[in-house]
Amino acid sequence: MMSVRLFIAFVCLWSISLQAQTDTIMESRVDPIQIKALRLDMDVLSAPVSINVHDVTTLQRTSQQLSLQDYMTNSAGVFMMNANNYAQDLRISIRGYGARAAFGIRGIKLIVDGIPETTPDGQGQVDNLVLNQIKKIEVLKGPSSSIYGNASGGVILINSFDDIAKNYVEGSATYGAYGMSQYILSGGWKNERSKMILSAGRVTTDGYRAQSGFESYNLSGRVEQQLSKKTKLLVQANYTNSPTADDPGGIDADAVELDRRQARDRNVAFATGESISQFKLGAHLDSQLKDNLSVEAYGFWSDRNFEGLLPFEFGAWIDLDRQYWGAGASINQLTAKGNYVAKSKIGIDLASQSDQRDRYRNLMGVQGDQTLSQLESFDNLGLYVTSAWRVNKWQGSAGLRWDHNQLAAADAFLSNGDDSGEKQLSALSSSVSLGYRINEHQNLYVSFLYGFETPSLSELSANPTGQAGFNDELQAQESENFEIGWKAMYKRLQMDVALYHINMTNELVPFELEAFPDRTFFRNAGSGHRTGIELSASYDLTEQLRIAGSYSYADMSYADFIAGDNDFSGNALPGIPQQFGGMQLSYAGEALTAQLSGQYIGELYANNANTATVSAYSIAHFKVGYKLQLGAIEWSPFAGINNILDVRYNDNIRINAFGGRFFEPGPERHVYGGVRVRL
Question: Could you report the per-residue pLDDT of 516-564, keeping only the tens digit for each?
Fold first, then answer.
């Protein structure tokens, strides 16, 4: 019933907003919101695809800044879980893409300030993001392989602060429940041709559940240099060291009822968790050659060291050393003749990933004998062309990309034989969209998008036979997205609706085996379908007060999926609710900032058989901050209450976990508070 009430509330908000459109609202011109997610600069209303833009500037003043989820809760079609298990990382899915992730982010492309954060094999982590430096987030929904290649079921484009009104130094301290503390020191400096922003932070928490402690340190810096009037260079670097991220594991329903805060006993016995350190250096160059011609180029290098312990003995101590680099360049051209305007881009992407994976016996938290050593690599070459055009009231876009992916595993642990091997998983991707501008404020569009996603190296190396090398049974999944949408953007009102249908082939699905508890393996389902509708709206009641809402409904199911003696055909995709949504009431004044938000998460299944059900729930949060200027010092105290109604819910679901250990309970009502001081 809660879902019905939420939907009715959303429709009421919609109708009230329409009725409230005065002549001033209807006639006022709106400053266009510029986006870059399509790799072509355009305004969000004209883009003939489904895309959400989140300006998180005001949220920075009140957020706890522990998870990217804080900034994206009101995005239709985007479902997030696992904000509190730092060993598993935030799990993000967009229209079902990414739902299978055992840890980290899969099937979704992350781009930070023009530089890829996702590895070529499709793995993404957000543990090295500097959350207090984020300014805007663009979320492109639907497969986008024609633009970004492999594992682009959706795109999250993150833009950092780049405007400095004047030089500053800022420090903040935040304290919260479960032993949480966070300290951040940052500063920004500029002159006529240069800008520099530096940040350092430390966060620790004991965690809500037993054995869920976390500790992390982060250093980051970015320098923007105006080399000439038409050429700009951005250089960025960040270092993350997380020596502790404990994993309490999933527990069954009986254990949840007995003690929500307990960890699984095997996770405690085997000291399950992870530690990581990562350094990344990147550069991005923009140069305007002529009024209608420009070039872009980027390059980066990353080194990531990972050590993880799983709750069993054989091969459960993982030591991974990842080297990852990439480079790309593109030429952009603008054509304008009368009512015809077109933008086009042709480019190349190169990326190489090398994972030295070693496994050892986990002797109750002590490293034992080695069981595996192999060097895994994933090399990508991508060539693409994309364009967008407008003539009178019609707009369109099209993209074509060819990707050659070379995967290899070199077995160095030869006592049990040589399991070296290689795979080639290449693809040609295309997309086409057409839009019609109904009037100055409304746009209607249709689109076709193609996507492909290879198994990641960690998924390929999780071989259910127990052997080294790759799981040769795994193939790339493919998808076709058909969509129709409508957008409206007025001075005080913004609305959009998207209806989509996705055909899936060889969908990658996780499962567990009794012999390897908490280790996730993967297989391909035959085919599947996803059909859904996404609604979102926001209305400015006053210059300071805004109400916003979103609602998503989707039928995601396997059309043909037989695994052994089990026939899952017709069953729903686990890990994704059929419906979810949220409402926000935000106030952003010069001094006072506050937000009351609520989310509804519908019922979902925890396994392919659809025999394990996770109940629906609603959750609400409140945050408030105040800015006070005392001389040259700006004081900004803030506080928040999470889970105001003290709802019992699951922060994460471990899909297809063996023994019914699906559940990771979420925290009860808890508070946080702190202060930011700016000079």
Answer: 766 778 888 888 999 999 999 999 999 999 999 999 999 999 988 887 7
- The count of domains in the chain is 1
The answer to whether 518 touches 267, Cβ cutoff 8 Å, is yes
Q: Is the pLDDT of residue 414 over 90?
A: no
CA distance 164 to 187: 10
d(CA 61, CA 34): 23
CA 430 from chain center: how many Å?
23
The backbone region for 316, taken as left when phi is positive above 0, alpha when psi lies in -120 to 50, beta otherwise, is: alpha
Number of H helices, E strands in the chain: 6, 43
Note whether 319 and 333 are within 8 A (CB): no
Q: Express each pLDDT in 328-383 by its tens digit.
A: 999 999 999 988 999 999 999 999 999 999 999 999 999 999 999 999 999 999 99
As a whole number of angstroms, the distance between CA 233 and CA 285 comes to 5
Single out the residue of 356, 373, 394, 524 nearest to residue 454, CA to CA: 524
**What pTM was computed for the model?**
0.90
Residue 61: CB atoms within 10 Å:
19
Query: How far are the Cα atoms of 179, 218, 377, 432 from residue 173, in angstroms, in the given order?
Result: 13, 15, 41, 48
pLDDT over threshold 60, residue 18: no
- The whole domain housing 658 covers 2-678
- The full DSSP string for 592-659 is EEEEEEEEEE--EESSTTS-SEE--EEEEEEEEEE-EEETTEEEEEEEEEESTT----EEEE-TT-GG
C-alpha torsion sign, points 243, 250, 93, 149: positive
* Residue 225: CATH number of its domain: 2.40.170.20
pLDDT at 25: 36
Residue of 325, 329, 381, 321 whose CA lies nearest to 352: 325
10 Å CB burial of residue 132 (0-12, 13-18, 19+) is buried
State the Cα angle at 322 between 318 and 327, rounded to 5°.
160
Question: Pairing state of beta strands 508-513 and 442-453?
Answer: unpaired
Give the tokens for residue 265: 């006993």
Distance, CA of 217 to CA of 204 (rounded, Å): 9
Amino acid found at 249: G
Give the CB-side neighbour count of residue 254, counting CA atoms within 13 A.
2
Phi and psi at residue 253, to the nearest 5°: -65, -40
Q: What phi and psi, each to the nearest 5 degrees, are found at residue 450?
A: -110, 145
Sequence-distant (≥ 6) Cβ neighbours of residue 515 within 8 angstroms = 312, 466
